[in-house]
Amino acid sequence: MNMALWLDRTARIMGDRPALLLGRRQVADYESFARRAAGLAATLARDGIAPGDRVGIFAKNVPDYLICLYAIWRAGAVAVPVNAKLHPKEAAWILSNAEATSCFVTDSLGDDLAEVTDLPLTRIGDDPFETACAAQPLDLVPRGAGDLAWLFYTSGTTGKPKGVRITHGMMAATSLCYPLDVDPVRPEDAALYAAPMSHGAGLYAAIHVRMGAAHIVPPSGGFDASEILDLSDSHGATSMFLAPTMVRRLTDAAKATDRRGTGIKTIVYGGGPMYRADIEEAVDWFGPRFVQIYGQGECPMAISALSREEVADRTHPRWAERLASVGRAQSLVEVAISDGRGGHLPPGETGEIMVRGAPVMPGYWRNEEATASTVVDGWLMTGDVGRLDADGYLTLADRSRDVIISGGTNIYPREVEEVLLTHPDVHEVSVVGRPSPEWGEDVVAFVVAAVGRTVDAAALDAHCLDRMARFKRPKAYIAVPDLPKNNYGKVLKTELRERLREEGS
């Protein structure tokens, strides 16, 4: 089934309901949402986009983001949403790897991307875009459950991003898990996009489209705590996905202005570790509005969930332990703990988390080696370490791939290290995460200078900013004479993290 079919169905039965809003201003009801997406799909087909072709979206959050997404699907093509925070060179690499035929962009991002790629770019919202949306509608191109819908690029420890193949069947499974395990959706609800639509927030759009809920994009295009409180109060019954650091900032802003978030229905949090004290404070202030989810791009948003009742309940004898978990397996997956030899560990034992089910990817885009090591006998090997208790609650113990999660965004040390190693002053480097009360973690680089050179933090910062997204660059550069290593020459990052803890730096 083509996921764009859900938009058609909603438009037929609830066409006059508010669909797309920029702040408080409605820009489309469901009838016009569907009509514009169908017209844009026709323009894509006229321009030679065939079923299975990849079409990029390198855009900030705007209401027409969903027009582009559904037009791509309606034409039978594959969406390649690219994180708007990435450096244009990084975005260009992703689009090249995906062999994208074209890309939708917002103005400033389009200007920067045009300097590093020859790919045809369509600017969202300009006159040609509006003309394209007004074209004679294209009939829905049939797609099967196994057909590709979305290429989600997630960085890996090998340095370059990997394209997760998200199929229409995966999208449907993830969407159906939402009302079953996270939060029921009603037509009078609204989804608010304070987190990037290129990631989990955008994936959750599908179930809100199916149920006829409104989609609110803040005028700021991102996260602004005061704006979120205002918009939620204005609409009411508003749901959103936030990274744990965003929850912390929202709580701080609400308490500073004595606002209780009365219009907020649900805040789904995930994408990084949530400090228990932070979620307790948030629940104490806002009430039972929070649901935790755990997922990966390879099983998007759909591994486990901790319900609002479980997040808020302080009466259960094990409430603190459960609050420190990421909940129980969602309805369409099985979760187990690997013993490293093909078997499963019993409750209470720690090992690699593995998951299988309808939301799990079939593999990576044109990367058979990575697929073979990640999807084993139908199980997704997450690379995360954790344990299950006797009641099925999953607790994360560590992130075995050394991923740094800052502001809810994954940052992989190898990417940063490879950039720094291209600077002539750098002989060796190791990048680790440092706990941050604001962002969850900060990026810190331990640098061994090349012979006869010194570590110049300003120069290294400029070097990074010219080659990768600003949010990935280190917040600190620490000069060291050498890096701690084991007998095999592997850098002991645990010792570097311990040094940061001991020094409080």
**Separation of termini?**
52 Å
Task: List low-confidence stretches.
Answer: none
Number of helices: 18
- CATH class annotation of the largest domain: Alpha Beta
Strand proportion, as a percent range, falls in 25-35%
Structural class: alpha/beta
Can you tell me the CATH architecture of the largest domain? 3-Layer(aba) Sandwich
Give the CATH H-level superfamily of the largest domain: ANL, N-terminal domain
What is the CATH topology assignment of the largest domain? Answer: Rossmann fold
Helix content: 25-40%
Order of strands across the main sheet? 2-1-10-9-11-12-13-14-15
Give the CA-based shape. Answer: globular
Query: How is the biggest beta sheet arranged?
Result: 9 strands, mixed
Mean pLDDT: 93
Radius of gyration: 23 Å
Give a short summary of the structure.
This protein has 2 domains: about 375 residues, ANL, N-terminal domain (Rossmann fold), CATH 3.40.50.12780; about 100 residues, GMP Synthetase, Chain A, domain 3 (2-Layer Sandwich).
